[in-house]
Amino acid sequence: MTAPVPNPGMFARPAPPAAPVELTPPADGLSGHPAVDAAIRSMTNAAELSPADQIAEYEAAYRTLQETLATIDQG
Questions:
Q1: Backbone angles phi, psi at 53, to 5 degrees
Q2: Cα separation of 38 and 59, whole Å?
Q3: Which of 21, 38, 39, 65: CA 20 to 30 A from 12?
Q4: The whole model's pTM is what?
Q5: What is the pLDDT of residue 65?
Q6: For helices 34-46 and 51-74, what crossing angle results, to 10°?
Q7: What is the distance between the alpha carbons of residues 35 and 73, in angstroms, rounded to a whole number?
Q8: DSSP states of 1-70 as a string?
Q9: Across the chain, which distance is largest between two alpha carbons, in Å?
């Protein structure tokens, strides 16, 4: 029976963690993605609507964001 051969990776030091990245949202509050920006604008504009109409706007924005994320995941 032979002794196991050590794996050189066992002795490697882990890389230090990367410095945190500062994420600053754009001043206009938009993402740069047309579909996401349209959803953001529709939710912002919904504040001026009646509560019943707000729900419809929020649901439409939610669907848009879901579809957009699904296409990103597929890419």
A1: -70, -30
A2: 13
A3: 21
A4: 0.58
A5: 92
A6: 170
A7: 15
A8: -PPPPPPGGGGPPPPPPPPPPPP---TT---S-HHHHHHHHHHHHHTTS-HHHHHHHHHHHHHHHHHHHH
A9: 79
Distance CA 46, CA 38 (A): 12
- Output the CA torsion sign for 63, 30, 38, 35: negative
How many C-beta atoms surround the C-beta of residue 7 within 10 A? Answer: 8
Q: What's the whole-number average pLDDT of the chain?
A: 84
Tens-digit pLDDT profile for residues 31-44: 888 998 999 889 88
CA quadruple 46, 49, 54, 58: dihedral, nearest 10 = -20
